[in-house]
Amino acid sequence: DLWDALYKPWPEDQGGSEDGVRIRLPFVITADARTHIGDAAKFLIMTEDVIPVDDGHFGLAFVSCVLHHVPVERHASMLREIRRVMAAGALLTIYEHNPWNPLTVRAVKACEFDENAVLLAAPRMKQAVAAAAFNTPQTRYVVFYPNVLRFMRWSEPLLGWLPLGAQYCVSAVR
Predict the structure, then answer these.
(1) Given this model, what pLDDT does residue 33 score?
(2) Helix or strand or coil: residue 68?
(3) Can you give the pTM of this predicted structure?
């Protein structure tokens, strides 16, 4: 299923641990991802802030742990381009690492892949989404418990307001 395709334990030889979970970037196509997704999805690469599709093409935009790898000065143009290719009423969902969570900051600093990452706080991301003309942006914090405390995960939906989750989600409507 999609959960298994996007969320898997990160291999130990790549900085993961037994109880760690790492979100895979959607633009890294692996044989494993192709096995799970097959021809059900088409992956496009955004170059020079252009997505090669017509206006209003998509009913959903899902941006998962990508923007902290993109220079902050490009966020506005990227968000405007994402909005351009979304249909009216489509949902935008952005997941990013939370710089207010000290364990997240530690993990990002220790990850070679995140060497030049710039973590943005959720209020700033929410402002950027609103500035790109999306409607009613909302923020929710997620991923509060490591695997060793997974028995507590039932409470995570109740904690979405608390800015201590390892990640946050900003969602808005086109």
Answers:
(1) 55
(2) helix
(3) 0.76
